[in-house]
Design brief:
- The protein is α+β, with helices and mostly antiparallel strands.
- It has two helices and eleven strands.
- A hairpin with a 5-residue loop joins β6 and β7.
Length: about 200
């Protein structure tokens, strides 16, 4: 059922795109349980773009990771990110963007390679949404960007307060039982010595 809903939503997004101006696209692939992976891109972002991708909802906590990248040496294909983040409960979670220069022949661009990353971010249940903002040569130029999102359900999830309380109560009960056993065993010790 989930897979069918994601497929219908992806088709609806693709159907709404016009050939003259490519829209941002995100495709979700479900995994085991509530885990999933997604790929997103914009093949020709607007000059000042503010791309907000289709949100995703998770029912359990887990680990979120994401990547974002673009390479553009010339002004005709140079995309520059000003913001990339996943918003939601406890967030926003920014993709830390690194900008690296690239030189080919006599042409150098100080931020030709831009790469964003979220690594193993614990998140809780809720609805989340990816936003990417920046500047680009325009919708009819060659600039583009792409990335991935992955979510591993339950992996390293933060326990709820009730779970913590039960865990602490359990440790207390174990400690009490161990202390009680030790006190029963302590007392005078007698040894028998047998001579042959």
């Amino acid at each position: 059922m989930k897979k069918a809903l994601w497929s219908i939503a992806s088709i609806a997004v693709l159907a709404g795109a016009t050939p003259a101006s490519a829209a941002p696209i995100i495709t979700y692939n479900t995994g085991p349980g509530d885990s999933f992976t997604a790929s997103f891109s914009n093949a020709s972002p607007d000059k000042n773009f503010n791309d907000v991708f289709m949100p995703f909802t998770i029912a359990v906590g887990g680990i979120l990771s994401a990547t974002l990248s673009t390479i553009g040496l010339l002004p005709s294909n140079d995309v520059d990110f000003s913001l990339a983040e996943i918003s939601g409960p406890g967030g926003p979670y920014p993709l830390d963007i690194t900008k690296t220069p690239l030189t080919v022949g006599k042409v150098t661009n100080n931020d030709a390679i831009e790469f964003g990353l979220i690594t193993a971010q614990p998140i809780g249940p809720g609805t989340y949404q990816l936003t990417v903002k920046g500047t680009a040569p325009g919708p009819r130029a060659n600039g583009s960007y792409a990335g991935t999102i992955s979510f591993a359900a339950g992996a390293g999830a933060v326990p709820e307060p009730a779970t913590w309380a039960l865990m602490i109560l359990g440790f207390g009960a174990i400690g009490f039982a161990m202390r009680r056993q030790r006190s029963r065993k302590s007392g005078p010790v007698t040894y028998r010595v047998a001579y042959a």
